[in-house]
């Protein structure tokens, strides 16, 4: 009699342990699913981390325009929808030949030379992450050399009379992080962007060419 009762008690204990383990497993699994859903509003918000793979925001480190005080924008940034798609990978700023081209933020000249017949100056910007942001200017006859440290407002070259893809002369200003093109105007704080009227000049009648 006692042996039979002992066996029944052992079976009950094993069943109880099995159910407890199953219940604990279900609880942990449920929490593991629920917790990310509960915090889904945090990524991208003011206090949450950026989603994996998202481009970090562009810091407004610019302290001056690359040409002039508030040059007319003759063509705005228009990112392509595909890697090799049509678009405009930068902004065009009206600037006659000989206009001084200035560094918009502190950094180091990473390239100064000619690409496809155009003079190009590229500057890696300080304190903008890894890899750092890079500004590019063309067509520019560079006066700065690769490796030069530059401060905001330092002259790095002048606009060349040839090599522009604008109907009138302009400076093409680009911004990249690694191989991703970004809007260079996002480098400028609101105070510089609001200084003077913003004008986007018409570009009708311009023959289509390869994406820039």
From TrEMBL:
Pro residues bias locations: 49-59
Membrane spanning stretches: none
The M23ase beta-sheet core domain, residue ranges: 87-184
Signal sequence, renumbered to the chain: none
Keyword terms: Signal
InterPro entries (alphabetical): Cell_wall_metabolism_enzyme, Dup_hybrid_motif, M23ase_b-sheet_dom
Key word Protein biosynthesis present: no
Alphabetized SUPFAM superfamilies for the sequence: Duplicated hybrid motif
Pfam families reported in the protein's UniProt record: Peptidase_M23
Name of the featured protein: M23 family metallopeptidase
Species: Streptomyces ureilyticus
């Amino acid at each position: 009699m006692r042996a039979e009762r002992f066996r029944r008690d052992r079976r009950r204990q094993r069943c109880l342990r099995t159910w407890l383990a199953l219940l604990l497993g279900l609880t942990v699994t449920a929490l593991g699913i629920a917790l990310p859903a509960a915090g889904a509003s945090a990524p991208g918000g003011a206090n949450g981390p950026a989603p994996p793979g998202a481009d970090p925001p562009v810091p407004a480190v610019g302290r001056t325009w690359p040409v002039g005080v508030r040059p007319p924008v003759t063509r705005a940034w228009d990112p392509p929808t595909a890697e090799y798609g049509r678009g405009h990978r930068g902004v065009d700023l009206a600037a006659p030949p000989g206009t001084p081209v200035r560094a918009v933020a502190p950094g180091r000249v990473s390239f100064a030379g000619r690409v496809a017949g155009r003079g190009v100056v590229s500057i890696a910007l300080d304190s903008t992450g890894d890899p750092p942001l890079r500004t590019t200017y063309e067509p520019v006859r560079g006066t700065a050399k690769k490796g030069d440290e530059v401060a905001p407002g330092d002259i790095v070259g002048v606009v060349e009379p040839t090599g522009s893809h604008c109907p009138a002369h302009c400076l093409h200003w680009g911004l990249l992080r690694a191989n991703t093109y970004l809007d260079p105007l996002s480098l400028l704080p609101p105070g510089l962007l609001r200084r003077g009227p913003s004008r986007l000049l018409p570009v009708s009648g311009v023959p289509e060419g390869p994406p820039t």
